[in-house]
Design brief:
The protein is α+β, with helices and mostly antiparallel strands. It has 5 helices and 15 strands. Bound molecules: 2-amino-4-trifluoromethylsulfanyl-butyric acid and cobalt (II) ion (CO).
Length: 290
């Protein structure tokens, strides 16, 4: 344990003396830790300058998704969507974070119907009337990361699938209401899981959300099947994603053996996901990317 003197500059980079800045905050964290709770490390707390830079990255991510929203329709291939994302992202001087990430071959994830996440765009995959698709965009601008995804309904979508998409969106909104200092990540996980189950759906357990901003995927890992009062404490400056994957049937998923990426439901039933990037603020939260 590194002890800093009360008169030294605060670890957060504010330039203030520790005792005038994060001293009381650290005392409070120690109290929670001593009571058996998971608490964030200082490196999970973004400085105001970092937050400003991440917001610039997020502006690009949002604009790219807006572009997709304007152009997506039946007859378009997921390869074309990949090209839009590459072209729009680079036009802003940014880099699509998925491209070459751990060997991922494309600039965006395109996940149709029973694909839960990490679908790989391809020229042979043409969007058809009645499809639901998740477009998951992630951007690197000046070294800062943003990450969000949206669902799109292609043409006439069945009432069943529409409801899945709407309930999943509501799960994210309900989860967001739980994001405030001194709540727990499990408070968010519980409301998301409860609402999904009330609607007869199951939340994917094996894949979660993550801290984001300075890296693509940072600590903490974020579960959406967790329990109120458990998991990591939320504190101002933490930034993470809310991105539950909600299945119409079983929560069980499998990864495609041939491509090593595509995640599908084992029962073949549809799955939906919306992803937002949120910052915990002094009095609640701020949505950074959507
Ligand atoms: N954007 C996804 C997420 O929400 C990650 C995709 S990783 C990739 O975490 F390599 F498939 F792009
Ligand atoms: Co994410």
């Amino acid at each position: 344990m590194h002890i800093i003197s009360r008169n030294s500059p605060c670890w957060c980079g504010s330039g203030l003396k520790y005792k005038k800045c994060h001293y009381d905050f650290d005392q409070k964290l120690a109290f929670y830790r001593n009571n058996g709770h998971l608490v964030p490390d200082h490196n999970m707390i973004k400085t105001p300058a970092q937050v400003a830079a991440i917001k610039e990255s997020a502006k690009v991510n949002i604009a790219v998704l807006d572009y997709v929203a304007e152009h997506i329709r039946a007859g378009v291939s997921t390869e074309e969507i990949d090209q839009w994302v590459y072209q729009e992202t680079t036009r802003y001087g940014a880099i699509p974070a998925p491209l070459n990430y751990e060997g991922f071959p494309k600039s965006v994830c395109t996940s149709v119907d029973n694909v839960v996440c990490h679908g790989i765009p391809s020229a042979g995959q043409i969007l058809r009337d009645g499809d639901i698709i998740n477009i998951d965009c992630s951007t690197i601008l000046n070294g800062y990361f943003s990450d969000s995804s949206r669902m799109f309904l292609i043409g006439n979508v069945s009432e069943e699938k529409r409801k899945l998409v709407e309930v999943t969106k509501k799960c994210v909104e309900l989860g967001l209401e739980q994001v405030k200092p001194w709540n727990f990540l499990g408070d968010m996980g519980q409301v998301i899981n409860d609402y999904a189950r009330q609607n007869g759906y199951q939340v994917v357990e094996d894949i979660g959300g993550h801290g984001v901003g300075l890296e693509f995927h940072e600590e903490p890992w974020v579960s959406y099947v967790s329990t109120k009062g458990t998991e990591m404490l939320m504190v101002p400056g933490m930034m993470f994603t809310i991105e539950p994957m909600i299945n119409m049937g079983t929560c069980e998923v499998t990864i495609d053996e041939r491509d090593g990426w595509t995640v599908r439901t084992t029962d073949g039933l549809p799955s939906a996901q919306w992803e937002i990037q949120v910052l915990v603020t002094e009095d609640g939260h701020e949505v950074i990317a959507y």
